Each structure stands twice: as structure tokens, then as C-alpha cells.
Amino acid sequence: MISQDIPFIDLHRHIEGNIRISTILDLARQHNLDLPAGDEESLRPYVQVQSQQPGVMAFLEKFDLPMKMLVDLDACRRIAYEAVIDAAAEGIDYIELRFSPWFMAETHALAPQGVVEAVLDGVQSGKIESGMKVKILGILSRTYGPDIAMKELEAMLPFADHIVGLDLAGDEANFPAELFERHFERAREVGWKATVHAGEAAGTESVWQSIKILGAQRIGHGLAIVKDPALMDYLFERQIGIEANLTSNVQTSSVIDYESHPLKTFLENGLCASINSDDPGISAVDLRYEYEVAAPKAGLTDAQIRQAQLNAVESAFLTPREKQSLVKKAKGD
Fold first, then answer.
1. Is the residue at 263 inside a domain?
2. Of all residues in the chain, what percent carry a pLDDT higher than 90?
3. What is the Cα–Cα distance from 145 to 170, expressed in whole angstroms?
4. What CATH number should be reported for the domain holding residue 294?
5. For strand 193-198 and strand 94-99, is the pairing parallel, antiparallel, or unpaired?
6. pLDDT at residue 54 in the model
7. Contact (CB, 8 A) for 136 and 123
8. Going by DSSP bridges, is the β-strand pair 94-99/9-14 parallel, antiparallel, or unpaired?
9. Of 74, 255, 233, 184, which Cα lies nearest the Cα of 263?
10. For 198-207, what is each residue's pLDDT tens digit?
């Protein structure tokens, strides 16, 4: 169960994977866009995973329809705002939301820099209304290759003071971390933290590259880590965070089932692994589900779930003072 005396935190949630079905319907009506169904329940199978997919890229196909709704910057602003409001409604105390401006801009040829500005504006509005603490991570999508990724980075850099870190996501198997070394160098130059999707669709070498070449302070998913005892030791010694995403890993067939997920092994070996929601709008889950349903299915004890919650505080891209403030608030001090 969720410990009430520890901040309730989500470190790995994609704005693009958090779009309400009602918003998809509303945007389609506003912009006269065709949909395969006209009500929420009928539309659900087209945007949410109903059964295990054959791989990560098949899972990502569920994003196609929601991305078609991002006709203009107001739509981008809206989904960012709603992501914050929805997180607050879940009772989350702190969330790190991430997004790929190029991915959001691509379908309707929006200006990526405009997308960044719109997302930041939407998040800020959500923060003011909800009062919750939010940080933003920018994503470079590997799938477009390093040249487009550099353009994507350049769209984000003018807003460096409003972004806390850089992520690398997308087609891990075909676009290794080494292609993006300069991108992450530039991110460090402006003071950003680094997290990388790795060890999900590729092996341990992907994780090693993410740490050694890109300077990753956290790893998204990291399933392959369990196969390499030396890597496990390395992460333990340096307390590099692992952003575990139980349900989405089952849905992408990255693991066979919850019981096969390595999160329990990570925690048994003292790794700084946390529980996160990934893409609630695609997976039809929220963070509470991941703690109360998915984690027990994965074999975690109450003590291990509590430790994962503590690990989220420890590995959050927050200052020590900000962490202390969150902990005090959770304890009612």
C-alpha cells in the first residue's frame, strides 16, 4: 500500500501518453477530424492497450490517433495543463512530466519551439490551479535520428531555465546512445540532469552506454540490468535510479507478466528503483494502480513498496531543500 508519511511521486510519465479520451473527442469535434468512434467507450480500443502487444514499437502505435489531435499549440497547451490536473487528482505530491516536442509537432507540422512554449505554459497553469509541484523533462526521440534530435534539443534550449532534465526515448534497438553524445553534453552545459530509456528493447550495453557516454543519472525501464551482476553493482554503488514501469512493461511484452518483472530483484539488491506510471492514457492505469495492484502482482512486499516510494524521493531531480519540504509536507509537519 501507499505510505501516507512519504511523498507520493511519479518520475516517469509522458504527457503524450496521458491524454484524456474525452479530450480526443473534444479536439476532434473542434477541428472536424475523423475518428473511428464517436464516444469514449467505443474509442477506447483505438487509443488504449487492451492486450499485450508484440513489442515496444507496436505499443507506440497507440499514440498515432492522439497525436493527430494536436492540430495547434492550444491543443498542446491543453493536454499539458490536463496532465498536471489529472496528477493532482490522483493525490500525487510531485511529478516529473516529460515530452518530445518533435513528436508532438510532427503530425501537423507545428513549430517545435512553439510546442515547448505551449507545454510549459499549460504546465504552469496547471501548477497554479492545483498547487502541486511539477518539473519538466524534455525528450529527444531516437527514432528520428541524431540530426532531428539536435533540432529538437535546439527547440528546448531557449527554455533551459524551465526544464530540469533531458531524456532519450524511442527506438532503442536501432538508435544506440552513442549517437546522442553531443546532445547530452549540451544538456549538461545548461545544467540539466539526464535520464535515458535503456535496457527495455535492447540489452545491458544500452544501459552501460547511457551511463558512461550520456551521463545518465537515472535509467528508464532498465529491465536488462538484472542480467549483468557487474552493472547491478555499478548502479548500487552510485545509487543511479531506475524508473520502473510495471504495467507498460507487461503490455509491451518486455516482460512476460508482472511476476517476471525484475523490480523485486532490484529492490532486494538495494538498487534505487521507483514505481512509475509511464503512459496512463495508453495503459489505462494511474500511479495508484501501479502501487496497489501491479506492485503486489510483481511480488513486492509492503516493505519493498515502501522502499520504492522512498527511492522516488531520493532519485527525484530536486534539490535537497525541495526534497526536505516534500517530506515535511507528507508527514504533516
1. yes
2. 93
3. 10
4. 3.20.20.140
5. unpaired
6. 77
7. yes
8. parallel
9. 255
10. 998 889 999 9
For the segment 107-115, the average pLDDT, to the nearest whole number, is 98
Q: How far apart are the first and last CA of the chain?
A: 22
Average pLDDT, rounded, for the chain? 96
Q: What is the model's pLDDT at position 10?
A: 98
Residue 333 domain flag = no
Per DSSP, the residues of 184-205 read HHHHHHTT-EEEEEESSSS-HH
Structural domain of 118:
9-320
CB 192 within 8 A of CB 165: yes
Buried b (16+ CB within 10 A) or exposed e, 294-318: bbeebebeeebbbbbbbbbbebbbb
Number of domains observed in the structure of the chain: 1
- Summarised one tens digit per residue, pLDDT across range 46-102 is 999 988 887 887 888 899 999 999 999 999 999 999 999 999 999 999 999 999 999
Tell how strand 241-244 and strand 193-198 pair up. Answer: unpaired
Catalytic residues: 200
Grid cell of 175 as nine digits = 538508435
Residue identified by cell 522516488 is 312
Q: Compute the distance between CA of residue 143 and CA of residue 26 in angstroms, rounded to an integer.
A: 29
Residue 276 lies in a domain: yes
